[in-house]
Amino acid sequence: MSDYKVPMRDMQFVMNELLDFDAHYQSIGKGDDASSDIVSAIMEESAKFCENVLAPLNAVGDEEGCQWNDGEVKTPTGFKEAYQQFVEAGWPSMTHEESVGGQGLPESLGTILSEMAGSANWSWAMYPGLSHGAMKTLELHGTDDQKQTYLTQLVSGAWTGTMCLTEPHCGTDLGMLRTKAEPNADGSYNITGTKIFISAGEHDMAENIVHIVLARLPDAPEGTKGISLFIVPKFLPNGDGGVGERNALACGSLEHKMGIHGNATCVMNFDGAKGFLIGPPNRGLNCMFTFMNTARIGTALQGLAHTEVGYQKSLEYAKDRLQMRALSGPKNPEGPADPIIVHPDVRRMLLTQKAFAEGGRMLIYFASQLVDTEHHAEDEEKKKEAADLLALLTPIAKAFLTETGFESANLGMQCFGGHGYIKEWGAEQNVRDARISMLYEGTTGIQALDLLGRKVLMSQGELLKRFTKIIHKFCQANADNEALAEFVGPLAELNKEWGEVTMHIGLTAMENAEEVGAASVDYLMYSGYITLAYFWARAAQVAEGKLDSSEASFYQSKLKTARFFYQRILPRTKTLHATMKSGATNLMDFELNEI
Predict the structure, then answer these.
(1) pLDDT at site 290
(2) pTM
(3) d(Cα 570, Cα 468) in Å, to the nearest integer?
(4) What is the share, in percent, of the chain residues with pLDDT greater than 70?
(5) Domain boundaries, the chain
(6) Buried b (16+ CB within 10 A) or exposed e, 37-60
């Protein structure tokens, strides 16, 4: 069984043929820095590193895990050396501004490179991955001095970063957090409290770790309006930009987890640790959302990564494994049995993974273009449109792609039969590693409430209309294209239904607020299927126009996968539509002792 191979041809299809990254980079003033030749060269080098260095360490990380000893954490064999190689090659600085030591390349290119690293070895990729949110928070909210002190070191990769939100008594409900920040005479603060589930909170891969920590000032209001944000380094910086004395914080223990064993998930104790306010007092959540949105797109990538890995592993196995004869007659008459890939049910599982992997890639790359536009476009209206679309699509991408990522990982394991349940094939690790993605950075339920409650209903449907108008224009433009009728017709109907069911939920919620929570997860999944249907229709449009090319087989496969998605997966929206409209009564009409 081979290790992960970067799906370069499909990445190129999405970037060059579907979304025209070259024109996109020109539009945001990055055309010279990110020409097609430069981007291709970067991707090729990243693929080599991910396939040859990171992928072989994936099973090592799972087997060894991280070792805790008196507050210090040792990462699995090879992780530290891989990180040093990563830093020496300049990968951490790729998408950051030149003023802080970056290379000034677009964020979307960083997303694509992160897909490669995460698919090769998600546990390892989380160490540098968590730093990106810390860097983005400092870029937008840090002072010039904070940027010079911390951001330059994070950009270089010499230091890594974390986000410290969750506490033992509260998860998503951050208004309940208790960590304290006592002011000092020198303008710093003493941070005291315990944070849990801190990914990459302690390790031996970098010389310093910069924690971004939520805490309360002494005079802070109650609830979420009284939370501030602080920089709390493991080692306090010295005058020359290096590390000085150890700060008063430590890793109290490591969590014993179901998966991603190669990444240290820490209990972090802050015992009067010196911290520095970032952003305005009591506005920490506003600043932290910069971090959270970055992390949520990153977690959507995890869903894609586990889908791709499951697909690659099960596809190769299904081609080689001999079992039974095809119902329509032998396909391998010289052998004792046929390869299992000939059986319809195995194809159902493989094609479901393929449709989610390739469709998810389209969605994430589109979202990454929106990030570029929001940050770099000169036209304010374009920036606002990108920000609005990203606000709508972020919870869909995070929750839908992680839910379907876990489904795909399970299907990949199922293709192996009993062999999937044992370690040597790596399928069971992929399932275990995938499961966390639906939990952290906000569970599926939290993302669903954010989508339906905050993004759609609180905007009176305006954010949703931003996207449904795009779909409507696509359907209008292709209404007379007979070759695309099987895609455009159903997509147009669902796009209209999406608006109608949203209106229905909004009206019922005016009488009973519980209707929002009752419909929210079904609404998110329903929205996800329609979103991928739009991208698959666009992919079919591109493929249909290239069936006479030298790569006819590639485009035939793309067209057939679009057809599979529409006929086998998209009908799930019918059930979701029915469950959404069934209302809240069948959930809430129980006394507590009746559940």
Answers:
(1) 66
(2) 0.96
(3) 17
(4) 99
(5) 460-587
(6) eebeebbeebbebbbebbbebbbb
Show the CA angle centred on residue 194, arms to residues 165 and 149, nearest 5°. Answer: 65
> If you write DSSP's letter for every residue of 138-205 in order, what string do you get?
HHHH--HHHIIIIIHHHHHTSEEEEEE--BTTBSS-GGG---EEEE-TTS-EEEEEEEEEEETSS-SS
Please confirm, yes or no, whether 441 is among the known catalytic residues: yes
Tokens of 262: 């190669």
Catalytic residue (choose from 441, 482, 486, 500): 441
Maximum C-alpha span of the chain: 84
What DSSP line would sit under 396-462, residue for residue?
Answer: HHHHHHHHHHHHHHHHHHHHTGGGGGSGGGSHHHHHHHHHGGGTTTS-HHHHHHIIIIIIIITTTTH
Out of 24-33, 233-242, 347-356, 438-447, the most confident range is 347-356
pLDDT at 448 over 50: yes
Output the average pLDDT for the chain.
95
Closest CA to 61 of 589, 504, 430: 430
Cβ neighbours around 150 below 10 Å, total = 25
pLDDT band at residue 1 using 50, 70 and 90 as cut-offs: very low
What is the Cα Rg of the chain in Å?
24
